[in-house]
């Protein structure tokens, strides 16, 4: 009896060789239309119905003492929130950029409205994680869930800053930010690029990419979902310190999973890091 092999789960939305080269040279690359409007609609509807994301938002102070809010999760279950980061286009593209198997680490969802006045100050992802991971071998795929413009506080990246190495994080007032003195010198030398995007566009960026965003001054929300992946060989030195960062194989799902409605709920049955839990999982290191 001849067995029939199960077809491999692959994607037709792979970054081109030119796009991958831009990522390695500049530290980031924008991929237009990574997700369709139909795929994002369930998530957008959920956010419209529950703008506080079911009470899961944590408040983070900026340099001016104003707050911005973030929701964090790492659960891989059958909800929309648990399946999106496992889609082939996400896993294959991050593996391509890392040069090896990637595994899903966590998601940070930042939803800005004009009643949330805080800015996301300049920082690097690896500056939070370096004491756990030997190399800066993580990639973030940030998906725009609505229009991201200069006026509503789109993500900004510092082109080529991933080549500078890790910048020390310092506490200024209640904010935890990249060293302001060193950052000011960097901003005098390198180009700041605003990542203006439409819903469904995404930007992939390096762990050492200096990035941040200004407040939203419009009457429309600005929502960005940061999906973070680590290289398998870069598993934290002490996984027990933060179990949510330990290597877990990412079960890759077909790209049409969301379009087919093959998920349980969007957020209703999902588990988030509760605001009061942040310190118990390493403080701001989850960012």
Brief descriptors of the model:
alpha+beta, Jelly Rolls, seven-stranded antiparallel sheet, four-stranded antiparallel sheet, 6 helices, 13 strands, disordered C terminus, iron ion binding, Phytanoyl-CoA dioxygenase family protein
- Supply the number of structural domains: 1
* Number of strand elements: 13
Q: What's the architecture in CATH terms?
A: Sandwich
The residue ranges in which pLDDT falls below 50 over 5 or more consecutive positions are: 279-287
Terminal residue distance = 52 Å
- State the major sheet: 7 strands, antiparallel
Strand content: 15-25%
GO molecular function: 2-oxoglutarate-dependent dioxygenase activity; iron ion binding
Keywords: Dioxygenase, Oxidoreductase
Protein name: Phytanoyl-CoA dioxygenase family protein
Pfam families: PhyH
What does this structure look like?
- This protein is α+β, with helices and mostly antiparallel strands and 287 residues long.
- It has a single domain (27-259), classed as q2cbj1_9rhob like domain (Jelly Rolls), CATH 2.60.120.620.
- Helix content is 18%, strand content 24%.
- The protein has 6 helices and 13 strands.
- The strands form 3 sheets. The protein has a 7-stranded antiparallel β-sheet with strand order 1-11-6-13-4-3-2. Strands 5-12-7-10 form a 4-stranded antiparallel β-sheet, with helices on one face.
- The termini are far apart.
- Residues 279-287 have low confidence and may be disordered.
- InterPro entries: Phytyl_CoA_dOase-like (IPR008775).
- This is Phytanoyl-CoA dioxygenase family protein.
């Amino acid at each position: 009896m001849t067995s029939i092999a199960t077809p491999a789960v692959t994607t037709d939305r792979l970054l081109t060789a030119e796009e991958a080269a831009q990522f390695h040279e500049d530290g980031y690359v924008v991929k237009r239309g990574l997700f369709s409007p139909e795929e994002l609609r369930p998530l957008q509807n959920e956010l419209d119905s529950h703008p506080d994301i079911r009470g899961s938002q944590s408040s983070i102070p900026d340099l001016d003492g104003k707050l911005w809010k973030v929701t964090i999760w790492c659960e891989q279950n059958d909800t929309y929130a648990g399946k999106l980061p496992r889609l082939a286009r996400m896993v294959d593209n991050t593996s391509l950029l890392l040069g090896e198997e990637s595994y899903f680490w966590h998601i940070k969802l930042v939803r800005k409205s004009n009643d949330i006045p805080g800015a996301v100050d300049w920082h690097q992802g690896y500056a939070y994680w370096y004491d756990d991971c030997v190399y800066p071998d993580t990639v973030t795929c940030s998906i725009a869930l609505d229009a991201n413009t200069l006026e509503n506080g789109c993500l900004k990246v510092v082109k080529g800053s991933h080549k500078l190495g890790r910048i020390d994080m310092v506490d200024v007032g209640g904010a935890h930010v990249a060293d302001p003195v060193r950052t000011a010198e960097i901003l005098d030398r390198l180009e700041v690029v605003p990542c203006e995007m439409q819903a469904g566009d995404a930007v992939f960026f390096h762990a050492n990419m200096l990035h941040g965003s200004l407040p939203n001054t419009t009457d429309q929300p600005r929502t960005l979902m940061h999906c973070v992946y680590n290289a398998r060989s870069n598993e934290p030195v002490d996984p027990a310190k933060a179990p949510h960062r330990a290597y877990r194989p990412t079960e890759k799902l077909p790209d049409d999973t969301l379009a087919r409605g093959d998920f349980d709920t969007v957020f209703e049955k999902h588990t988030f890091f509760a605001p009061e839990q942040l310190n118990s999982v390493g403080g701001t290191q989850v960012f």
